[in-house]
């Protein structure tokens, strides 16, 4: 492909999206560029503070538990208070708690603050996803979610590298830098993002859609359950794979080399793959990506060298690239306009719960049965999820989603609320 064609493809990928989306995208990128706690918490506790690995695991679990709790709380706040206030509260609190984490020394205090960090940081996710659904036209949502996912991985790739050098100097500096970057996100939200929550109508009000409504939506809860299964599989890249490689005699550097391919491929392929899938049937994409993820991890049972481990990472990373934006966009299709926050919160809960359970599952299976059983289980779970998507969604008409989800909207992607400014859609400055 020529340089001109590459530029044209890139221009088409980023064109047509509203300015508000790009400010939200910028906020996401800045947030991930400052990520430190999630990457180096275990090393901070065991090396810098001298605590045991068991205590580090407990703190990580409490951090994850905070995320589970706030998945639903953040969704309710996004619908009741609005997307913008929820983001401001969540990001400001996260900045305060992350900074505090760098100064507390008592084990109980560290554990408590880690829980608060997980609680505050995860509360913004349903609001971000709901706001993105509000401000982006239905036909552009898969592309928008894909670009946001790309920003998350690009920021994380850069921050992980930088965090290693920062940790050599000072772990506290890392916490303060993350706190500052998160506060910068809040400033971007305050200065540049208008509220996007749809205005109440006679037919649908946010207060009429409670968590009970979400729980009674059987088709949606089935999708959440399938998302949980897929998330359990993907979590093994960070919890099961390093343990299995260590047991097989590989070094942490070997694992780092293999897993680095995941971030590199996402940054390199997310945008071109999205161009290929954005107008294809999401039902097929979800089914195929679930099976591909399961068998990508299943192939790990046959890996005996770093090169083969890396190849397996390539397989399930491709599944991740397809699954992430498709799943998020599909969740929006199934969500009523005035309940997007709660529905996105329940979807976020499936991933938070998987992050909490996956370490326990992988450790138990590897200790009692061996790593090969874990990879076989991943293949089975991925297959079940793929079949579940195929069977559950086979009767869902393609017209039941983007069009009906925005019923009552004004067609401009703001879900029925008036645009604060009549600005043309713009591409990012870079």
Question: How are the SSEs placed, and which strands pair?
Answer:
Blueprint: H1 3-14, H2 19-33, H3 37-48, H4 53-80, H5 83-101, H6 107-135, H7 141-169, H8 171-192, H9 211-216, H10 218-235, H11 240-247, H12 252-277, H13 282-298, H14 306-333, H15 340-368, H16 371-392, H17 402-405
Helix pairs in contact: 2-7, 2-8, 3-4, 4-5, 4-6, 4-15, 5-6, 5-8, 6-15, 7-8, 7-12, 7-14, 10-14, 10-15, 10-16, 12-14, 13-14, 13-16, 15-16
Mean pLDDT: 80
Number of strands: 0
Q: Number of folding domains?
A: 2
As a percent range, the share of helical residues equals over 70%
Remind me, CATH topology of the largest domain? Growth Hormone, Chain: A
Q: Uncertain runs with pLDDT below 50, 5 residues or more?
A: 399-430
What is the CATH level 1 assignment of the largest domain?
A: Mainly Alpha
CATH superfamily of the largest domain: MFS general substrate transporter like domains
**Secondary-structure element order, N to C:** HHHHHHHHHHHHHHHHH
**What is the correct CATH architecture of the largest domain?**
Up-down Bundle
């Amino acid at each position: 492909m020529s340089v001109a064609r590459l530029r044209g493809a890139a221009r088409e990928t980023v064109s047509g999206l509203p300015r508000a989306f790009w400010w939200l995208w910028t906020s996401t990128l800045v947030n991930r560029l400052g990520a430190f706690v999630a990457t180096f918490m275990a090393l901070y506790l065991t090396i810098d503070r001298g605590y045991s690995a068991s205590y580090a695991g407990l703190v990580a679990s409490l951090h994850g538990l905070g995320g589970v709790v706030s998945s639903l709380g953040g969704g309710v706040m996004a619908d009741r208070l609005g997307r913008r206030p929820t983001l401001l509260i969540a990001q400001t609190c996260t900045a305060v708690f992350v900074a505090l984490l760098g100064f507390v020394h008592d084990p109980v205090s560290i554990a408590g603050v880690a829980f608060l960090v997980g609680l505050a940081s995860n509360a913004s996710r349903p609001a971000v996803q709901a706001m993105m659904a509000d401000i982006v036209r239905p036909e552009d949502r898969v592309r928008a979610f894909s670009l946001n996912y790309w920003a998350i991985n690009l920021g994380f790739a850069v921050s992980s590298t930088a965090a290693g050098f920062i940790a050599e100097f000072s772990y506290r500096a890392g916490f303060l830098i993350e706190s500052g970057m998160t506060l910068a996100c809040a400033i971007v939200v305050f200065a540049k993002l208008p509220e996007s929550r749809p205005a109440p109508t006679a037919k649908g009000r946010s207060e009429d859609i409670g968590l009970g409504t979400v729980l009674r939506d059987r088709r949606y809860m089935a999708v959440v359950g399938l998302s949980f299964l897929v998330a359990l599989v993907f979590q093994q890249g960070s919890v099961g794979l390093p343990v299995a490689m260590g047991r097989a005699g590989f070094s942490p550097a070997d694992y780092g080399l293999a897993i680095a391919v995941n971030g590199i491929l996402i940054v390199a392929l997310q945008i071109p793959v999205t161009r290929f899938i954005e107008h294809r049937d999401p039902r097929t994409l979800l089914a195929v990506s679930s099976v591909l993820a399961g068998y990508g991890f299943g192939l790990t049972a046959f890996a005996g060298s770093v090169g083969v481990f890396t190849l397996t990472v390539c397989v399930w990373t491709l599944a991740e690239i397809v699954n992430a934006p498709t799943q998020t966009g599909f969740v929006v299709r199934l969500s009523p306009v005035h309940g997007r926050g709660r529905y996105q919160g329940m979807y976020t809960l499936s991933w938070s719960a998987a992050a909490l359970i996956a370490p326990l599952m992988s450790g138990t299976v590897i200790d009692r049965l061996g790593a090969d059983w874990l990879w076989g289980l991943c293949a089975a779970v991925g297959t079940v999820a793929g079949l579940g998507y195929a069977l559950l969604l086979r009767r869902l008409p393609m017209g039941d989603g983007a069009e009906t989800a925005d019923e009552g909207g004004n067609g401009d992607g703001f879900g029925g609320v008036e645009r604060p400014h009549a600005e043309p859609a713009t591409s990012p400055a870079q």
